[in-house]
Design brief:
There is one protein chain. The chain is of the alpha+beta class and 113 residues long. It folds into two domains: 1-31, no CATH class; 32-103, Chloramphenicol acetyltransferase-like domain (Chloramphenicol Acetyltransferase, 2-Layer Sandwich), CATH 3.30.559.10. It has three helices and three strands, in the order ααβββα. It has helices at 2-10, 21-25, 83-101, and strands spanning 34-38, 57-63, 68-73. It has a three-stranded mixed sheet, covered by helices on one side. This is Putative carnitine o-acyltransferase crot. Belongs to the carnitine/choline acetyltransferase family. Pfam families: Carn_acyltransf (PF00755).
Length: 113
């Protein structure tokens, strides 16, 4: 990215790397199809974030002591994305993985002794 910024500032030709179609398809120039971010490790009132491009998804999560909160976003007017379908399609996978792969320790928040 530094090379692209230098080219823009100096008015020199953009390096060929940044003009290659595979660079754009891999997320270059703000074309990330999936934008993710961890919103922290403490209890939140809500998650915030937005997908980077019109036909992309945003996946934002908070890792708390006894749970992981996930928020998925997509633009409603996109013909390529559907946030509800993404959530439904992955919900069983996430819950099944959590049941078979890990168990959370008892904590003061879960009501366990």
């Amino acid at each position: 990215m530094g090379l692209a910024l230098i080219a823009l500032e100096d008015g020199t030709p953009m390096p060929e790397l940044f003009l290659d179609p595979s660079f754009v398809r891999s997320g270059g120039n703000g074309n990330f199809i999936l934008s993710t971010s961890c919103n922290g490790y403490t209890p939140l009132i809500g998650l915030c974030g937005v997908q980077v491009c019109k036909d992309g998804y945003g996946a934002f999560y908070s890792i708390e002591e006894t749970r992981i909160i996930i928020a998925i976003s997509a633009f409603r007017d996109s013909t390529e994305t559907n946030a509800s379908a993404l959530v439904q399609g992955n919900s069983a996978l996430i819950h099944g993985h959590a049941k078979t792969s890990c168990s959370l320790p008892s904590s003061k928040y879960s009501g366990d002794p």
